[in-house]
Amino acid sequence: MTVSPSFWIRSPADLPRSKGQIELYSSQYFLACGFGGAVACGPTHASMTPLDIIKCRRQVDAKLYKSNLAGFKNILSTEGFRGILTGFGATFTGYAFQGAGKYGLYEFFKYQYSQLAGETNARTYNTLLFLSASASAELVADLFLCPWEAIKVRQQTTIPPFAKSALEGWNKIVAQEGVFGGLYKGLAPLWFRQVPYTMVKFASFEKTVEAIYNYLPKPKREYSLLAQTGVSFLGGYIAGIACAVVSHPADVMVSKINAERKPSESMGQAVGRIYGNIGFRGLWNGLPVRIFMIGTLTALQWLVYDSFKVAAGFPTTGGGE
């Protein structure tokens, strides 16, 4: 059985209706998907804060903790329970905004690009469409994420944290370094991390889900919605592992730049100096914990996102009809 892309619509007259009140592929549909993305990304990323703080600190200083468990115990003993939640507010806010842009715009660009490509090309080159749509969405979504990522990294990699809340961090960075010199100084490396990450995340998810339904004995439409969201979770976890590996070197560099870049340095100078200090091997510090974190995150996000789509009366993502 060959599964064709479910986003191809032959003509405006063929536009399907969702089970609810919102017409599929309408502006309201894309806005709803954006809301679903915010719900999927904000809480899930924030729930990983205890792992994230250890990962970021070990990326900045590999000798700080002997292991992830040692890092967790050290933070609890020296900073208390609140310490392991450092950066929670900035993480929640930033990734809620980013999730809204990423998922909503992905659905929008995926649909628009398929229409521009035409039916034959859309079916033949669907992987290219997934990659193009996800890259376009992430470029925009990172504009919303970048300030909060800068605050989060600064909070997590300074001991004691340089700000007690996301708002305090925002005000401090703007006062000391300005909006573009402080909150957006990590935008370029963030793009280098997030755009490949999202391209792999969405394309590998779509292709994994497609492969799962090709392997199963029945077409997607004959499985219950609960079973379909289960496929989404499995496909999301596989996609998350791939994402973690592909984007990890850039993730390390983002953490280092936000924590260590000197005001007098250009981006190229900062990257060159940091790479000279840590080398190629240093770009992979913290990879095991990030594989676990991102695999779990990605699986949960697709589960939440597709569960939201089901609740709204929309079809689940990927795998044909």
Q: What tags apply to this protein structure?
A:
mitochondrion, mainly alpha, globular, Mitochondrial carrier fold, mitochondrion inner membrane, transmembrane, MCP_transmembrane, 321 residues
What does this 3D model show about the protein?
- By secondary structure, this protein is mostly helical.
- It has one domain (23-311): Mitochondrial carrier domain (Mitochondrial carrier fold, Alpha/alpha barrel).
- It is built from 12 helices and no strands.
- The longest helix has 36 residues, at 225-260.
- Residues 1-5 and 8-15 have low confidence and may be disordered.
- This is Mitochondrial carrier.
- Pfam families: Mito_carr.
- One of its GO terms (biological process) is copper ion transmembrane transport.
Order of helices and strands: HHHHHHHHHHHH
Helix and strand composition category = mainly alpha
Can you give the helix content as a percent range?
over 70%
**Multimeric status of the protein:** single chain
Question: Per DSSP, what share of the residues sits in E-state strands of 2 or more residues?
Answer: under 5%
- What is the correct CATH architecture? Alpha/alpha barrel
How many domains? The number is: 1
Largest sheet report: none
Protein name: Mitochondrial carrier
Keywords: Membrane, Mitochondrion, Mitochondrion inner membrane, Repeat, Transmembrane, Transmembrane helix, Transport
GO molecular function, one term: phosphate transmembrane transporter activity
Solcar repeats: 28-112, 125-211, 227-311
